[in-house]
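# nightly structure sweep
# worker-07 picked up a monomer target from the shared queue
# config: single-sequence mode, recycle default, output format = structure tokens
# input follows
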Amino acid sequence: MSYEETKKGWSMPYSHHHTHYEIYILLSGERTVTIGNTTHLVKEGFACLFESNISHRSEGNTDYSGLCIHFSKQYLDRYFQPNIVSTYLTCFKTPIIFIPADYRKKLLTWNKAMSHTSESSYLLLAQILIDLSKFQKKYCADSSLFVSDVKTSSAQRIINYIDANYTTLQNVSQIAECCGVSESYIHRIIKKNTSLTVKEYINKLRLRHAIHEMDCSNNSFAIISKACGFQNISYFYYLFKKNYGLTPTEYREQLKKTHK
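# output follows
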């Protein structure tokens, strides 16, 4: 569990996903959060729950603060039986859950008191997951008063769809079919909103994802390029060098020097 505070509005530049589960409790401010293909206006007091491998992004222009919890299913498997783990993870079926004020204060106290390497961290995580399931049921009706789906134009739906699925998209016809519009319309919308072609926009998202992967993992370039949606590692190398002026190898070496 970690506390974070941002004085200026910050936007995640692209949708991303990871294998671990994530819980983000917004303590102050307001965020527009896209989970999969659904966008929510999330206000103070709500938790966003991101399942393993679910595409998500966050943006906004206000100061905000929150608590972030990351964990893997393997971590729970280490301490609990499979049926218990499944029960703990049921809260993730509801992506936005209201958290009462007194419980938010309790979480802040726990965060300050506990070490990330504490031997009892797994018990605290289990308790939080149990409590989230309770809030999921107790505040179901109230949540609709504070969280609303953001109305999006057809253009924004197209962009959101690409942002959520760029790692698996193979051609424009896939986007057209899922969004119910023509391919020519998609080309016009992307060019108008990003000044890029559809292919360039998708590659831009994939390259940003690759940068994120290199910053956060030691995975091979073959694994990273495939995870980002590149079918050909040579093409990945070519685009990376063209856009950043460095090969992936050179970028990683530079990263190592920076972190020394």
